[in-house]
Design a protein that fits this description.
Blueprint lengths: L3 E5 L4 H11 L4 E5 H4 L11 H16 L3 E10 L10 H5 L3 H15 L3 E11 L5 E12 L14 E3 L6 H4 L1 H7 L1 H13 L1
Parallel strand pairs: 1-2, 1-3
Antiparallel strand pairs: 3-4, 4-5, 5-6
Helix pairs in contact: 7-8
Length: 190
Amino acid sequence: MADKKILIATHNAGKLAEFRGLLGPLGFAVSSAGESGLKEPEETAQSFAGNARLKAVAAAKAAGMLALADDSGLCVAALQGRPGVFSARYAAGDYPAAFARIIAAASAAAEWRARFVAAICLAEPDGGTRTYIGQADGVIAPAAGSGGFGYDPIFVPNGYKVTYAELGVEEKNRISHRARAFAQVVAALA
């Protein structure tokens, strides 16, 4: 039985599953804002760190407990770093269409470099916060794989020949942008 509790400020089932996999072995009982019926605040910040902080602070205050939020996205060189903080809105629920737009832009520019960035914020109910940033560089590729979520099927991390969606959960959780930010969280929680 986990003796430590943490609220993940998300309504995204993929992110929740990923954080449960990362936090469970550390002895945390994980719940989510979605499961708790908490509203998500509007993401109005212009940075991943700012949006993570907005979500974490709102969840920690509403639930009266330690909360963790992440904001992450795909930054594509051919799109001058977009979709970036607007990654979810860029897809608007239609990831295959977003994949097609990104691949078309990368192809037209002959520029395939991309970067996933994750900011994770820990917030206490009193408003205190700590933020950690992780990134993974790679390239855009034709969609492949059925694992992961979001833009995972079109991102091949440096040093690999397969997309995040083809890696498998254990390997992705070891090398991803979120895993790199999370390693800093683990050090802070230890």
